[in-house]
Design brief:
It is a single chain. The protein is an alpha+beta fold. The protein contains 7 helices and 10 strands. It folds into 2 domains: 159 residues, no CATH class; 37 residues, no CATH class. The longest helix is centred in the first third of the chain and has 22 residues.
């Protein structure tokens, strides 16, 4: 290959880096609001928000954070018709729903696609501000063609719960911590892990295992 000529993979990497850098800069100049899952369910908090308001950081039910530039991965469709229930093509809003009708659902061919969060939005669950909030995301696949990069994730918590969306940075669940600790105990018994290493891991996992729901 001639000197100075970039490969396709290098171009994709540059696109990804440029997108993330732009989002970080945007987050720094935009004093966005932050919300936790518990706050979205608190009517006193939710009533202060309007549909379409933008957040800079959202803390999921499991305690992990979603922010501009976060990477997510598409899982598998919940529906038997091989269409994602909560993953839609383009940046879809209520205004577009009124003008254009129902969203275009992504098909199972998008399973495994990695996307970057470009906007975090709120939506009331009912036609009143005195109702809980759902979080929806605008995301982008920077390696896709320019006119086909945008997607919408509707009801983020449910999309993750149904495994249509995978959060690589998700906090470890109680069940996962128990399994990991049991596996570590087996390794100690097999002489493949020291007692010191096991005790360190146990100390780290214990708060997750004994936390109250």
């Amino acid at each position: 290959m001639s000197k100075g000529k970039k490969t396709f993979d290098e171009i994709k990497t540059m696109d990804m880096k440029n997108l993330i850098l732009s989002l970080i800069l945007f987050a720094n100049v935009c004093h966005g609001q932050t919300l936790t899952y518990d706050q979205t369910q608190d009517i006193n908090v939710a009533s202060n928000f309007s549909n379409g308001d933008t957040l800079s950081i959202y803390t999921l039910k499991d305690g992990s954070e979603i922010k501009l530039g976060s990477e997510l991965k598409f899982g598998t469709p919940l529906n038997t018709n091989k269409l994602f229930s909560r993953l839609w093509f383009g940046e879809y809003t209520i205004a577009k729903a009124i003008l254009l009708g129902p969203p275009i659902q992504l098909a199972d061919g998008y399973t495994g696609e990695k996307v970057i969060v470009t906007a975090i939005k709120v939506q009331h669950t009912k036609l009143t501000k005195k109702s809980p909030l759902q979080i929806y995301l605008f995301v982008q696949n920077p390696t896709a063609p320019a006119l086909a990069r945008n997607r919408t994730i509707a009801d983020l918590e449910m999309a993750i719960e149904t495994k249509e969306v995978i959060n690589p940075n998700a906090a470890m669940t109680r069940e996962q911590a128990i399994i990991k600790l049991k596996e570590a105990k087996d390794l100690v018994d097999l002489g493949m892990m020291s007692q010191v290493e096991f005790d360190e891991l146990k100390s780290k996992l214990t708060p997750i295992i004994i936390k109250k729901e």
